Each structure stands twice: as structure tokens, then as C-alpha cells.
Amino acid sequence: MSRIGKHPVPVPSGVTVSVVGQTVTAKGKLGEKKLTLIDDISVEMKDGTVVVLPRAETRRARQMWATSRSLVNNLVKGVSEGFTEDLEINGVGYRAAVQGKELVLALGYTHDIRYPIPAGVTMKTEKPTTISILGPDKQQVGQIAAELRAYRPPEPYKGKGVKYVSETILRKEGKKK
User: Fold this and answer.
1) What does the angle CA 138 – CA 31 – CA 46 come to, to the nearest 5 degrees?
2) What is the CATH code of the structural domain delimited by 83-164?
3) What does the radius of gyration of the chain's CA atoms come to, in whole angstroms?
4) What is the 3-state secondary structure (H, E, C) of 88-156?
5) pTM above threshold 0.90
């Protein structure tokens, strides 16, 4: 039995969730999101919670049970609270700034990198060396953070580059004489 899937998803106040067939729609202060689940999973509203159950005892239904519950939970949490990912930039002359609808990164290349900010996502740069990505879709926020990190991943000798705030860089010792 799934340990994650058996817990119902609580719906906080200010969020309305509707279930039509296999489509779950959540509407909250950060917008409206839809999710279509596979046919092996049944989803229904009960007492202000969303309950996800497998339709049959097949292997695929049991595999997708907790996955579907987590997706519904992320959908509800996304429209109510949102998700955030923080990046940190280390290196002399490395900086970030939000200009209009794009993020401008100076990462030691001959040109500035201009990253267009997608609709529904907000980016903040309180300091020139930090980037905060906020949005209702956990997958999209994580994907944007990974793309920004990929422009200049942190290197192990001086730690220069773009890294997650929670990430620790394994440092290497330099060359010896």
C-alpha cells in the first residue's frame, strides 16, 4: 500500500478545487492550474479534501498512485502559496538584473545573457548576486532554475558560477608546486 497516496490532499481556504472526470482544476490567489491524471487513478472530492485512489490492483496503478497524489498536492500548493527557488552567483564581476520582461546575466562571457521571463513566473534580484524565482508550477520553477544554473555551473576550485542556495560545492585543492 502506498504510504504517500493514502493521505488525502487538504484544500486550504481561498482555494477552490473541482474534479471533472480525470481533470483536476485548482483556482487560488496565484491563478488557475489544471492537471489531467491517467485512467488507472480515480480522484474525487470528500469533505474539503481531494482523495486519490487506484482503480485496480495493477502494478501501474499502484506506481502512479503516490505520484498522482503528489501532483495534485503540488497543484493545490502552487495556486495557494506558490513555489520559490533561490540561486546565488559567485565570482568577480558576475551579476544578475531584471530589466523589463527579461533577466540579464553577466557571467564572464563576452556578452550578457538575456533570459526571457515566462508568463506566470516572477523573478527578483534583491542583490546583484541572488536570483529568486517564484511561480505556481513547481516543475516550471525548477526547470528555469536548472537552465539558469546551466549557463555557468559552479566550478570546484574557486566555487565561481551559479548555484542553488542550498547546494554545497565540493571544493578541490589547487595544483601544488
Assistant:
1) 80
2) 3.90.930.12
3) 21
4) EEECCCCEEEEECCEEEEECCCCCCEEEECCCCCEEECCCCCEEEEEECCHHHHHHHHHHHHHHCCCCC
5) no
The third-level CATH classification (topology) of the domain covering 9-80 is Outer Surface Protein A; domain 3 (3.90.930)
Distance of alpha carbon 103 from alpha carbon 115, whole angstroms: 5
Q: Assess contact for 28 and 15: CB atoms under 8 A.
A: yes
Task: Look at residue 7 and give its three-state secondary structure.
Answer: coil
pLDDT digits (tens, 9 = 90+) for 112-164: 999 999 998 999 999 999 999 999 999 999 999 999 999 999 999 998 999 99
pLDDT digits (tens, 9 = 90+) for 110-124: 999 999 999 989 999
C-alpha 50/C-alpha 109 separation (Å) is 49
